[in-house]
Amino acid sequence: MTHPTLIRRDGHRPLLLDLSLSLAAAGVPVLPLRAGKVPFGNCRSCADNACGGRPNMKAAGNCTCPRPCHGWAAATTDPRVLSSPAWTVAWSRAETVAYHPGGAGVTVVDLDDADAIGWARENLPPTRTVPTTRGEHWVYRGAMCSANGVRPGVDIKSSMAYARWLGPGTGTFTELPPAVRALVVKAPAVVRPVRCTVSAPAGGGRCPHRSPAYLERGIAMAEQRITEARSQVHTTVYRTFLAVLSAHGRCGCLTETHIDRLFTAAQAKGETARHCTDAWANARTVLGL
Fold first, then answer.
1. CB 3.0–4.6 Å: which of 30, 48, 107, 217 could bond 158 by disulfide?
2. What's the pTM value of the predicted model, to 2 decimals?
3. Hey, is 89 helix, strand or coil?
4. Which residues touch 67 (CB under 8 Å, ≥6 apart)?
């Protein structure tokens, strides 16, 4: 049996295009999906980002491709684009409409089965719910990063992702709760930090600082500076490492425990072990250690 949205009106545009225009008018960025719930493949001009950028992305780029070939990044609310000849052809070949949740200012918690739904009912606040083939979409107001497999049967679809449009659903939208954001926060990897092999100063190797509390206070302040960084985290980590080494790197008082504390604070802000190692090595090189 033919899906009702694939039936074309004689001499008129496909019904999927009508649906997409209605959603776009409501501020929902949409795109067509082919069979198998996949977007249209990149054309040669746009494959591997060869066009210099993708539409609807914040990254700089000069793509003027008229085709709906950019996956989630092709999602648009522009009726002129949606009704263009290339997109009209795509709608006639599409199986369903998808949308970019993050672009619409929402987050979809995709629950694939009964177990996942049961978990959500016990752990998440109720919100707008949309039935799916096997489970449910729980839609919250607010955008976040997307991630698949955050727990068994649960995916998060928001920024840089697409979700099928399966209807408006039922229930009242709830603000995106911390419990959902926490699903994509990974604990920092436990990494053995680079050993600080600085030379002890002349004069018997005694630390010139006033007391051990001086070093402890310096490490604590460094941890705080990294933890409170709101932007340019990588630069903040490097400059903090540089400051610590400048003050304590030549007396031999830094231990692996101190360095591990700094690395752990950096990783909690999203820095990788490699970034930490490189930042530490670069700071030592600059100081000639």
1. 107
2. 0.61
3. helix
4. 40, 43, 46, 86, 87, 90
